[in-house]
Design brief:
By secondary structure, the protein is an alpha/beta fold. The chain has eleven helices and ten strands.
Length: 346
């Protein structure tokens, strides 16, 4: 497999399972850098409705499809195949931008059918990925959430969320926001390989601190836990997050749907060849001998003795550091329809 271009998670573009034509790029075609190409996403709805029983939200909003962070393990990679692209390098370099997301969100909230409830911002790809610095779609969507006071839960591994602290503080006044910072490892070297364009661990801890100081409810997500690679870090991650100001913690076991399984194992071969057997063996142990298990109820945590050990380690560590409770429930009771013609205050 080709080595990844600088700043990318993978150099591979595996065949799209839904396309008959596939172009195989030579390594020399990558050059030193591969530019990111942005496409206009013509979706006519901002919100996606979730029907999965093991996901804690009904509605989600993703301003971007594809993600420049380049996390090699990302379970969202296969969704790029539905767009005619590869789950590999294409996922990191061909980003779809929902330019009308804020306007479409406002239309949802103005609809007589809308019943105020929490919306997850970044249910699939990170709403604060690098392109957000220029497109500012997430900020514009947060302006709509603040205008209507509709609750929003954000998941990110980017420090860019602090740019919008003014909006988050306004939403926090009405118990209408929570932020979950994803922290996979405390090791800069590992983070640089796993998540090449995401904020480094120290910066994420600083982000947790800044949010907590501002009175914005913030939790930490140890996601994903990768058996044989970062699982032993669970106590240290929770200790550091608690010291930074996190008030809650959760975790998700690594998920490897096709073709992420191939991409991830190729990555392990390249970056940690001495751990390949251990990592793959423990993943299979948690997944009934397979690399992935899509069944509701087991896909997030796995099963078997080793999965039980991970759950116990997390539970004990979370209790020790005071992170074994959920963040306060978000409150939709302050939802309002702004007076007609009123402009956003932000």
């Amino acid at each position: 497999m080709a080595s990844p271009p600088r700043g990318r998670g993978t150099g591979a573009n595996p065949e799209n399972r839904y396309e008959r034509i596939h172009v195989e790029l030579e390594e020399t075609e990558f050059g030193e850098r591969v530019p990111t190409v942005y496409y206009r996403d013509a979706s006519r709805s901002a919100l996606a409705e979730n029907e999965s029983p093991d996901v804690g939200f009904r509605w989600s909003l993703n301003p971007y499809r594809g993600c420049e962070h380049g996390c090699i393990y990302c379970y969202a990679r296969p969704t790029h195949e539905y767009l005619g692209f590869s789950a590999g390098l294409d996922f990191e370099t061909r980003i779809f931008v929902k330019e009308e997301a804020p306007e479409l969100l406002r239309a949802h909230f103005l609809s007589e059918k809308w019943r105020p409830e929490t919306v997850a911002l970044s249910g699939n790809t990170d709403c604060y990925q690098p392109g957000e610095r220029y497109f500012r779609l997430t900020r514009r969507c947060l302006e709509v959430f603040a205008e209507f006071r509709n609750p929003v839960a954000i998941v990110t591994k980017s420090a860019l969320v602090l740019r919008d602290l003014d909006l988050l503080e306004e939403l926090a006044r009405y118990r209408a926001v929570a932020v979950f910072v994803s922290l996979t490892t405390l090791r800069d070297d590992l983070a640089g390989k796993l998540e090449p364009r995401a904020a480094r661990p120290g910066r994420r801890l600083e982000t947790i601190s800044a949010l907590a100081r501002a009175g914005v409810p913030v939790g930490v997500m140890v996601a994903p836990v990768i058996p044989g690679l970062n699982d032993e870090e669970i106590p240290r991650i929770l200790s550091s997050a608690a010291a930074a100001g996190a008030a809650s913690a959760s975790w998700v076991l690594l998920r490897l749907p096709k073709p992420v399984d191939r991409l991830f194992l190729d990555w392990v071969d390249r970056c940690f060849p001495e751990r390949r057997r251990r990592v793959e063996g423990r993943i299979r142990e948690c997944r009934g001998g397979r690399l992935s298990d899509a069944r509701f109820g087991t896909r997030m945590r796995g099963e078997g003795p080793y999965a039980a050990q991970l759950a116990s380690l997390f539970r004990v560590s979370a209790r020790r550091y005071g992170l074994d409770r959920p963040l306060p429930a978000l409150d939709p009771s302050s939802f309002r329809i702004p007076p007609e013609g009123q402009l956003s205050l932000f």
